[in-house]
Design goal:
With 244 residues, the protein is an alpha+beta fold. It is built from two helices and 15 strands. It folds into two domains: 8-97, Zinc/RING finger domain, C3HC4 (zinc finger) (Herpes Virus-1, 2-Layer Sandwich); 113-166 and 196-243, PH-domain like (Roll), CATH 2.30.29. Helix content is 19%, strand content 31%. A nine-stranded antiparallel β-sheet has the order 10-9-8-7-15-14-11-12-13. It has a two-stranded antiparallel ribbon with strand order 1-2. Pfam families: FYVE, ZFYVE21_C.
């Protein structure tokens, strides 16, 4: 339920201090689990440059992938919010680049999603629409839709998503399509037009039947477009988290 308290606790792992939900079942859907470190006895050499470890050349583990490197190949400390680390942590060159790109989502797009946008919302095949504010919940697990009525969509129960662009309708080619957020990855990105709407299929709590939800930008189309673009990025991270 979305009413579960968002309490957090500070825990220490071999990789560093982490601020995690008190109940692990309520982790952010964007979060990644800490990797298992490659055992020291299995990595006599750096897994990047093949330098042999000795008393001078110490081995270091990348906090994101868990592989073993020399100091030169694993010297960068980069923030890793997807694993809830309090401070920047040591990462290899490849992982640090990925983490740096993800920081834009946490610094910018996530704030847009939490702030919300205004949309004209249509449920199912109904001919009735309602103007509602859609925002991401603070624990990142739900989309809250508020207008004259209120309902919510749990991200983990979304089965497909289309980000529509100007001049398109559901099913056309010039859309950003996520054919299944739950079961696999199939992303088709079309054009550079401004995002104008979103089509979701999801299973409401307690139901195995898919429900359709269509959202079209309402009053502030620029803000709505920014919100949809942020949701586009969020969907990619959801795929990665589920595919790990």
């Amino acid at each position: 339920m979305s009413s579960v308290p968002d309490g957090k606790k500070l825990v220490r792992s071999p990789s560093g201090l982490r601020m995690v939900p008190e109940n692990g079942a309520f982790n952010s859907p964007f979060s990644l689990d800490e990797p298992q470190w490659v055992p020291d006895k299995e990595c006599p050499r750096c897994m990047q440059c093949d330098t042999k470890f000795d008393f001078i050349r110490r081995k270091h583990h990348c906090r994101r992938c868990g592989r073993c490197f020399c100091d030169k190949c694993c010297s960068k400390k980069v923030a890793l919010p997807r694993m809830c680390f309090v401070d920047p942590v040591r990462q290899c060159a490849e992982c640090s680049l990925v983490s740096q790109k993800e920081l834009e989502f946490y610094d910018k797009q996530l704030k847009v999603l939490l702030g919300g946008g205004t949309f004209v919302v249509t449920l199912g095949t109904s001919d009735k629409s309602e103007t509602m504010t859609c925002r991401l919940s603070n624990n990142h697990r739900y989309l809250f839709l508020d207008g004259e009525s209120h309902f919510e969509v749990e991200l983990s129960r979304i089965s497909s998503m289309q980000i529509l662009t100007d001049g398109t309708s559901p099913g056309e080619e010039d859309v950003h399509t996520y054919t299944s957020l739950l079961d696999g990855l199939c992303v088709s990105e079309g054009g550079t037009s401004r995002a104008s709407g979103m089509l979701l299929h999801y299973k409401p709590m307690g139901s195995q039947d898919a429900q359709q939800l269509q959202m079209e930008a309402a009053e502030d189309k620029k803000l709505a477009s920014l919100w949809l673009a942020a949701m586009h990025k969020a969907a990619k991270l959801l795929h990665e988290a589920r595919d790990q």
